[in-house]
Amino acid sequence: MKEVTNFKSCLKPVPDVLVSCRGLNGENNALAVEYAGNCSYDPPMVMVGIVPSRYSYNMIKESGVFVVNLVSEELREKYAYLGSHSRRDENKLEVIDMKVGEGVKVNAPVLLDCPVSIECKVVDSILTGSHEMFIGKVEYIHAKDELIKEDGSVDYSKINFLKFR
Ligand SMILES: Cc1cc2nc3c(=O)[nH]c(=O)nc-3n(C[C@H](O)[C@H](O)[C@H](O)COP(=O)(O)O)c2cc1C
């Protein structure tokens, strides 16, 4: 074993999620995020890391809510688009024809093409360095009918998760 001297994001594999959000002016948006993880199961919480220069950053900072949408392989092209274009320049959700629904508990868009969407309210955030980690308390979870088991949980084994890179 030798020391690794060249590294940035060293924890792998990463989840590939789409974080959707809404500005105070009503604008909808979503961006690709791989800085994401569970951070509590009681109460259920997740965290997402957003670089302050992203257009979405102020939307989440100001609204205090976001939605984490899990992504399947068939959404690869749309994921790449949302991860390489900014709402600063265009309404990218409309450009790529992403179907959008309304949050039940939060005022933010839900991406209807995604198998699971997790509505969150920001309870804290930490500016770690390059990213600000937003801690979101889970308020409501949507899942496609065929993914919901008898006990009300999600059968994640049925999702062909995107592994972007
Ligand atoms: C695979 C992938 C993972 C990404 N992960 C993150 C991330 O964790 N945090 C982040 O702020 N941006 C991340 N990005 C970059 C944003 O998705 C990208 O800059 C996006 O265009 C920002 O959109 P916005 O300006 O409309 O908010 C990622 C991009 C890709 C392609």
UniProtKB/TrEMBL annotation:
Q: Which GO terms describe its molecular function?
A: FMN binding; oxidoreductase activity, acting on the CH-NH group of donors, NAD or NADP as acceptor
Query: In the record, which residues are listed under signal peptide?
Result: none
> Which metal ions or organic cofactors does this protein require, according to UniProt?
FMN
What sequence ranges are listed for the domain Flavin reductase like? 10-156
* InterPro entries per UniProt: Flavin_Rdtase-like_dom, Flavoredoxin, Split_barrel_FMN-bd
Arranged from A to Z, the UniProt key words for this protein are: Flavoprotein
At the top level, the lineage of the source is Bacteria
Report the PANTHER family cross-referenced here: FLAVOREDOXIN, FLAVOREDOXIN-RELATED-RELATED
Which family does the UniProt entry place this protein in? Belongs to the flavoredoxin family.
The name of this protein is: Flavoredoxin
Organism of this sequence? Clostridium tepidiprofundi DSM 19306
Gene encoding this chain? flr_2
